[in-house]
Write a structure and sequence with these properties.
There is one protein chain. With 361 residues, this protein is an alpha+beta fold. The protein folds into 2 domains: 27-55; 85-347, 3-Layer(aba) Sandwich (Aminopeptidase). It contains 11 helices and 14 strands. The protein has helices spanning 13-59, 65-73, 146-151, 157-170, 182-192, 223-231, 238-259, 265-275, 286-296, 337-344, 353-360, and strands spanning 86-94, 106-115, 120-125, 131-132, 141-142, 176-181, 195-199, 203-205, 212-214, 217-221, 280-282, 305-307, 317-322, 326-331. Strands 11-6-1-2-3-12 form a 6-stranded mixed beta sheet, sandwiched between helices. A two-stranded antiparallel ribbon has the order 4-5. It has a two-stranded antiparallel sheet with strand order 7-10. The longest helix is centred in the first third of the chain and has 47 residues, at 13-59. The protein is globular and about 90 Å long. The relative contact order is 0.14.
């Protein structure tokens, strides 16, 4: 019986590569995944360190990056300071500390009020020439000067002085304060990709770097045009400028809602990076800023209540010239009670007189 020799086993390159290929593929995939993870951690780390640096500058704190990371990832249980569910935030708009022409004076003074029980929000413009008193100083000052007085002592003290004065004037606790300069303001609008402002009336001012012209109705504005619109006042007055400032805030609010910005952490990090280290200051802590954004995302911002004050005869304010402070806006009565009542009741529904009579009957 003939025994046939075994067939030779071919070990050519084709068969070997067929055996090794799955292993090589897995190694390449693993190496690629490791590289992606390293890049992701690296980019995330850079963003986190950058965010930590900016947040420390904004809040005046000196927290390490791990503490900031903990606050950013903390459970959503931080509650904003409030009085009967109402949180008041003072917002000051300034030119910037490097502006030699009164860069620390507040060109815009607003109070944002969040009413948690009814999920209502109010934007209240306060005249910058309101009479204010400063503890330890004689005489009166304009409200808009207090930020500069405090900033010369401490980065946050100007906000605290203004908050204290606003609390005396309004009769409400002002829980937080924010200062935003013009560069920060323009940076936010750039990050939003421009805004649409619904102008209440035609406006023209030939001053301010070539001037500005806006027609009544919806108008697209980039950061430069919006800056001029909220800054210009040589052809009008402070009261009209306050109205225009509220119009721009509305445009920013609408665009932020359209982009889902309040719920987008990457967008917010981009805004922080755009702002830089010196354009924004706040008395809020990181977890409180997060809580404020979370609260505002629950509100119907289209129903935002707007309020402004001037020296009209039917209003609570009038004016006079002080021998030291100059032009000041003061209460028409002997105290701020009428203004306080109006501001404090801003979330109270207006009940017609005839309905109130029926209810009382």
């Amino acid at each position: 019986m003939d025994i046939k020799p075994p067939k030779p086993i071919h070990t050519g390159s084709k068969s070997a590569s067929a055996v090794q290929k799955p292993g090589l593929r897995r190694k390449r995939i693993i190496r690629s995944l490791v590289a992606v993870v390293i890049i992701f951690i690296g980019v995330g780390g850079v963003l986190l360190f950058r965010a930590n640096s900016i947040l420390n500058s904004i809040t005046g704190n000196n927290q390490n990056v791990f503490r900031t990371f903990e606050h950013l990832l903390a459970r959503e249980n931080t509650q904003l300071a409030n009085e009967d569910g109402r949180t008041n935030i003072a917002v000051l708009g300034i030119r910037g500390k490097n502006d030699p022409h009164g860069g620390l004076l507040a060109d815009a003074i607003m109070i944002i009020s969040l009413n948690e029980p009814t999920k209502e929000i109010a934007l209240i413009s306060m005249p910058r020439d309101l009479r204010a008193e400063v503890p330890g100083m004689r005489g009166y000052r304009k409200l808009n000067s207090l930020n500069g007085l405090g900033e010369n002592r401490d980065l946050i003290e100007g906000l605290e002085l203004t908050k204290s004065a606003l609390a005396d004037i309004t009769g409400m606790e002002i829980h937080y304060g924010i200062t935003l300069d013009f560069e920060g303001f323009k940076g936010i609008i750039d990050a939003l990709g421009g805004i649409t402002v619904n102008a209440a009336e035609d406006f023209h001012d030939p001053n301010y770097d070539g001037g500005i012209t806006v027609t009544q109705g919806p108008t697209y504005m980039d950061s430069e045009k919006a800056h001029k619109y909220v800054w210009a006042r040589l052809t009008t007055n402070d009261f009209d400028r306050a109205r225009r400032q509220r119009e721009v805030i509305n445009g920013m609010k609408d665009k932020a809602e359209e982009k889902g910005a309040l719920r987008n952490p990457l967008f917010l990090l981009n805004v922080l990076d755009t702002l830089g280290d010196n354009n924004l200051k706040t008395t809020m802590q990181v977890e409180e800023m997060k809580a404020a954004l979370r609260e505002m995302s629950k509100y119907n911002l289209d129903e935002m209540i707007e309020k402004g004050y001037d020296t009209s005869l039917d209003g609570p304010l009038t004016s006079y010239t002080d021998p030291v402070a100059g032009y000041l806006i003061v209460p028409r009565a002997n105290d701020w009670s009428e203004l306080q009542e109006d501001i404090q009741s801003i979330f109270t529904p207006n009940i017609p007189d005839e309905m109130e009579s029926v209810n009382n009957f």
